[in-house]
Specification:
By secondary structure, the protein is α/β, with parallel strands linked by helices. The C terminus is likely disordered.
């Protein structure tokens, strides 16, 4: 079982970043996830290059997670997507004629821009995988001119949007593989949706399918047992479906936003992960809003170190030049 740790912190101080990466590696991790916002490459390309090379130097592979891009993926920032802000004509339009702050993924200029962004990152930085975290097309049926042209039957627009969402994710994975067949493609869902999981498991260019595991609400014993049983079934099913379709599975542990009681429940959630036997487990490094941040991280380290460790130290012969800054 491999271990991945999300590192959603600044790369501006190399000495601190190196210390953090060494801690993550010592906990048994073989890779990190780093989330990139859609305007960041214009502002600090040298810091990004330097930080990702530090991960490589201590033996950690890197998954890059596009955040904000079109407001279609999980993001660290409450700020709107740079693309959506600058291209308001791409926004989702509901049946009342109101625009929403996410880009319609059926717009060809947006797709072309997103594909070019990923090509830039993969050709410039030491990246081993692209992780699409919490992809979500929203609950709004889009009535924009593009969707109406692609699906003239208004009564089928909701079904069309879901089908075209799966096609969009498939095209995105295929584009990544076309750039470099060795780059791993990963989709991590925010919640279990049986029909969506089955559709994603069929994507030919998807390598790994994952699921976020959230702390169970505190309930009466009988209700809590039923909720745990249902959630556990979803965890096992996503692992089984991934295995059935020759894909890897990933279960993501919630070790953030925990009060004292949530911290005490963390080992039980970890046991659910182990019982499902995924190929990979993920968590966060010192993430947000824990009542005892140091205690949660130390507990997380203890749990991770109980997993049999694989000693993976690798180097790449590929040279990555620091990208030129755009002219001011």
């Amino acid at each position: 079982m491999d271990i991945t740790v999300a590192y959603f912190h600044s790369l501006f101080h190399p000495d601190l970043v190196k210390r953090d990466f060494e801690q993550i590696r010592a906990a048994g991790a073989s890779s990190i996830v780093y989330s990139i916002q859609d305007e960041e490459r214009h502002y600090w390309p040298r810091d990004l290059e330097r930080g990702l090379l530090l991960a490589q130097d201590v033996g950690l592979k890197v998954y890059l997670s596009p955040g904000q891009h079109g407001n279609l993926f999980a993001t660290l920032s409450p700020a709107p997507s740079w693309y959506t802000f600058h291209h308001p004509e791409s926004r989702v339009l509901d049946h009342h004629g109101r625009y929403h702050d996410l880009t319609c993924f059926n717009h060809e200029p947006f797709r072309r821009w997103l594909f070019q962004e990923l090509a830039f990152y993969l050709n410039t930085y030491p990246i081993n995988g692209i992780l699409l975290d919490g992809p979500d097309y929203g609950e709004i049926t889009c009535f924009c001119s593009v969707c109406r042209a692609l699906c003239p039957d208004v009564t089928d627009l909701a079904g069309f949007r879901r089908r075209s969402w799966v096609t969009f994710l498939s095209d995105l994975c295929a584009h990544i593989k076309g750039l470099d067949k060795h780059v791993r493609t990963v989709i991590v869902l925010p919640s279990y949706d049986a029909s969506l999981v089955e559709d994603l498991a069929l994507l030919p260019d998807l390598d790994m399918l994952g699921l976020h595991l959230w702390q169970r609400p505190r309930q009466q014993p009988q209700a809590a047992e039923a909720a745990t049983s249902s959630a556990d079934r979803g965890e096992r099913e996503i692992v089984d479906l991934a295995r059935q379709h020759q894909k890897r599975s990933l279960l993501w542990l919630q070790n953030f936003d925990l009060d004292e009681g949530g911290q005490q429940e963390l080992p039980k959630l970890f046991q659910l992960v182990l019982q499902a036997e995924p190929d990979e487990v993920a968590c966060y490094y010192y993430w947000r809003n824990n009542s005892d941040p140091e205690g949660v991280w130390q507990l997380t380290r203890q749990l991770l170190r109980s997993i049999p460790r694989r000693q993976l130290h690798w180097q790449t012969g590929k040279h990555f030049a620091i990208p030129r800054l755009r002219d001011e």
